[in-house]
Hints:
The structure is a homodimer.
Chain A: E1 7-8, E2 18-20, H1 44-48, H2 53-60, E3 66-68, H3 71-80, E4 85-87, H4 89-95, E5 100-105, H5 116-128, E6 133-138, H6 142-154, E7 157-163, H7 164-169, H8 171-179, E8 183-187, H9 193-201, H10 209-221, E9 226-228, H11 235-254, E10 261-265, H12 270-284, E11 291-297, H13 302-305, E12 307-312, E13 321-326, H14 348-355, E14 360-364, H15 366-380, H16 386-405, E15 410-415, H17 423-430, H18 441-448
Parallel strand pairs in A: 5-15, 6-7, 6-9, 7-8, 10-11, 10-15, 11-14
Antiparallel strand pairs in A: 1-4, 2-3, 4-5, 12-13
Amino acid sequence: MEKIPYKIYLEEQEMPTAWYNVRADMKNKPAPLLNPGTGKPMTAEELGGVFCDELVKQELDNDTRLIPIPEEIRAFYKMYRPSPLVRAYCLEEKLGTPAHIYYKFEGNNTSGSHKLNSSIAQAYYAKKQGLKGVTTETGAGQWGTALSMACSYFGLDCKVYMVKISYEQKPFRREVMRTYGATVTPSPSDTTQIGRKILEEFPGTTGSLGCAISEAVEAAVTREGYRYVLGSVLNQVLLHQSVIGLETKAALDKYGIKPDIIIGCAGGGSNLGGLIAPFMGEKLRGEADYRIIAVEPASCPSFTRGTYAYDFCDTGKVCPLAKMYTLGSGFIPAPNHAGGLRYHGMSSILSQLYDDGYMEATTAVQTDVFKAAEQFARVEGILPAPESAHAIKVAIDEAMKCKETGEEKTIVFGLTGTGYFDLVAYEKFHNGEMTDYIPTDEELQKSLASLPKVD
Amino acid sequence: MEKIPYKIYLEEQEMPTAWYNVRADMKNKPAPLLNPGTGKPMTAEELGGVFCDELVKQELDNDTRLIPIPEEIRAFYKMYRPSPLVRAYCLEEKLGTPAHIYYKFEGNNTSGSHKLNSSIAQAYYAKKQGLKGVTTETGAGQWGTALSMACSYFGLDCKVYMVKISYEQKPFRREVMRTYGATVTPSPSDTTQIGRKILEEFPGTTGSLGCAISEAVEAAVTREGYRYVLGSVLNQVLLHQSVIGLETKAALDKYGIKPDIIIGCAGGGSNLGGLIAPFMGEKLRGEADYRIIAVEPASCPSFTRGTYAYDFCDTGKVCPLAKMYTLGSGFIPAPNHAGGLRYHGMSSILSQLYDDGYMEATTAVQTDVFKAAEQFARVEGILPAPESAHAIKVAIDEAMKCKETGEEKTIVFGLTGTGYFDLVAYEKFHNGEMTDYIPTDEELQKSLASLPKVD
Lengths: 455, 455
């Protein structure tokens, strides 16, 4: 048999020309967004005040299986894609496992993560609609960076509300965004009504993702020629991210490889949803079977300890309601939580698939995650983002099980990004100062008490 | 004609299997290293106290044209190589130039630069010789990071002396090295005799590359089972870096492209020497002609304003003397100089080639360099290291000349690395606080007064 290379690259002409919409193959469709005022599903018109028209279409389209990727977006994809599918020969050898481990590496672009796959699409549609600019929030900063890059490419104004504590602790992220011409405002700020209200109520607050979302939405809807864009959770984002899975599948198919286990980290679900999309499609259509595992932080366990219910998407409660596995919109991970994967809810698509039993979920504590990250870095070269290292942790665990049983399983995981901006956390880990936190049942009950009542 | 893709990747089997030693094709060989005590060329035995045996051979070998790359190194190369040769379609369009611009991007690995190409080779030979570990110095931190990665891969101890001001200003670089298990000591330190002496003489000093070299060499020669390794300047390093040029040439040849101009930034010369190697070989053999341009910082202009003479390689004067274009071993770039390219001398190979008229050199001030960096980042996506941006600056200049003349020249430049750890400098640039400095003739005369007397 032909030896599998270290890195499988697709040729340009092998790159996907359409995104795959997994909803088309779901029998139980994800629940629609609801208008918090009326409790009725959001109409295209209502959503059009917040999102670009074309993205609203994509958000609501549960039927079209393949949605063509516009030529301009494909041209941009070619600047940094295809991303390599890497055979982790060195890790396998180090572990002494008979398992075959592959990872799809999305960190080889300046945003440092997979987020660029969706930001360039969202910026393109905003430009095409003749808008002046877009607003968004960012926590760890990957999404804000990705959006800044996309906006500078299309000449759009970009306003980023960055969670205040990240703004202060990650000044370098801010500078990357400024390099791409974005305006970055620490949130909560006095530039929005909701920001001023939150500052009044909680004067010393260091901000949260839910609060930054509220500000970004307000900044968009109160400005002529602006719309709001979001980097995860939404159906449209998972659609764009399907490019990850489509490339992964094409690369595996080239060598006739069929994975047994597919693993991805899960915060809002954009990477996981993208990575598994075409595999999940086969599973839904009964054409193949795969074990699909979502890994979330033990400190923010929406899949494993949340409730499947309608909830607010943001702290200010200005957004539509979404049905998802949620910890309650007031949930904020403990201060010792490093990195992203800190959103209180999970993509509606993945929530439905999980609820229907098509995938598993597990958690990892962060000291174990950083241990896996360091182990991986030392043999595979790449310094992973803490988010991505959740998947590494579980991939290693599964590979070690294979070592015990002697099974030659094929494991594929998503390496979403690099950890260049997470070195404060790495430093804590090296100095033995990193701690773990698992929320108590009481804490979760408390944050879940704020769920809205929906008939 | 077949459309050139955005990124030309070689297949694994097209990757170089031997390094190219440009010295074999040089009529005037680079001058040998001299023993500072005797003034005589360093023997293999003398060099063997400092460097690994196999590397000493490579250092002294002016004749063997192709030196096979050991299988273990080729396996590691496959983890992060081949690096892409990128057609800068977006930059060309933005500039409106008829020129065709290509860049060889070496930043897609965690060390963030081309330095890994040589560190993995040096670590391999150290391991093969049964050594316990290696010592080195690092300034901006790219080399230290690359060496840490290589040592962790082969299970070698790695001691890095990091210029004190960088150690303090770039704590994240230090943490990356620690992730790979290296010990990082700010230099000058009290762990070496020379360090203590320098600290006594200059109590408040923030260190320099020349001083860190002295400490690293002392740390190696006074320890059983250790050798010193260096990331640039040396013949062996340029040899390893020839992999950059060989891949570049193979990728261009695949599409029948012949460059007119080849541009690289130049500090100690490792990237430039590697990038141009096979092209220079053709030029030396009279088989082809290329314009080859070295770009150095106006604040550290060894080619353009230095003297071609034997000089000390380090501040402590413990190293052999090298004949090179130099500003004097006491030269330290002004404190406002950001990034690397701060060594006082230039590779002996490149110095000889430059002196023989085979290449040109030019300078750029750093505000212009950062302007070019930002322009590039916004259209090509990649956030470049300040070092690499010197080449971008001149590539853009040359492309704009083509716009004036209408010439469809092919320009190739080396994009050596990413700027993730240079965001303090980017911030200064964004805030309008970055300044330029060009040393006066008097300053250079003063630093050149320290040149050793060699018959």
